[in-house]
Amino acid sequence: MKSNYHYSVMLNESIDGLNIKENGIYVDCTLGRGGHASKILSQLKTGLLIGIDQDQEAIDYSKELLSSISSNYKVVKNNFRNIDKILEELNINKIDGAIYDLGVSSPQFDEDYRGFSYKFDSSLDMRMDQNNPLTAKYIVNNYSLNDLVRIFKEYGEEKYSYSIAKNIVEQRKSKEICTTFDLVEIIKKSKPTKELNKKGHPAKQIFQALRIEVNDELNALEDSLNKILKLLNVGGRLVVISFHSLEDRIVKNIFKENSVVEGNRVNEIIDPKNIKQANYRSINKKVIFPSDKELEENSRSKSAKLRILERLR
Fold first, then answer.
1. Least C-beta-crowded within 10 Å: which of 71, 181, 247, 289?
2. What are phi and psi of 205, to 5 degrees?
């Protein structure tokens, strides 16, 4: 079942955060179904929008949407961790803004054959890029017990990582674990009744962990953010929407490292003129959350956090 419906999380807040100039160059690093990208493109006159995505289905849909607005765009099929090479190939040295809407898009969750959701019985896939040779099915059937425990703990923050990993290893000895429901059944058997009775699906954290491992999401995010900061023009803005604590921690730390200069407290010894200045500043001192209205319209916005950084020099 293919789906193209996607609710663009914190659309107005993120576009306002970019502070778009009509002649600027902007990059949507997570193009998806083009919600944020189309809003950016509609505000450009002589500027350029660059959209990046790994998912060919998303690219095909977005190209059609963007072409109905303007021709001032380019779409690239790639991983956003390669942002420096992508821009180099386009002969672009600097940009005026970039946006990341992290995680899995609604269509990817809603397409049962992609294996992202524990709500549909489908092949254990979870690849954002269908050319990626690594799948969730390969991981659960081939990773060692220790490696399974590690990714479940690190990427899923799952309390019962060991018992789940142990039962996966036992199960695969007699029968290959092929589908999402096969895995869900093992997860449920690995948790005590009190955990199964809690709110939320018992497989959520394991599915998150596998998805992150398959797509190397956290390393890709850190690589990309560090690269794109250097590519911003003075006055350029970086907008990031994250959906879980692991993503947000990376964003928060990188923003802090670049916007706060340690040891700058003014006293009688330090001349104010000698105080080091940061190259970037956080636009929002406190993280921005979705409005009540948005939460009513889209429950998937619930965990979203928005951070904005601007280059000063």
1. 71
2. -70, -35
Rounded Cα distance between 87 and 222, Å, is: 18
Are both 15 and 102 inside the same structural domain? yes
Angstrom distance (rounded) from CA 97 to CA 222: 17
Of the CA atoms within 13 Å of residue 206, those in its CB half-sphere come to 31
Domain housing 76: 11-107+217-311
Residues 221 and 208 placed together within one structural domain of the fold: no
pLDDT in tens, the chain (313 residues): 454 566 899 999 999 999 999 999 999 999 999 999 999 999 999 999 999 999 998 999 999 999 999 999 999 999 999 999 999 999 999 999 999 999 776 555 556 667 788 888 899 999 988 889 999 999 999 999 999 999 999 999 999 999 999 999 999 999 999 999 999 999 999 999 999 999 999 999 999 999 999 999 999 999 999 999 999 999 999 999 999 999 999 999 999 999 988 655 555 555 556 667 899 999 998 999 999 999 999 988 999 999 999 999 9
Question: Domain end: 180, 215, 250, which one?
Answer: 215
* Closest alpha carbon to 95 in 132, 49, 62, 59: 49
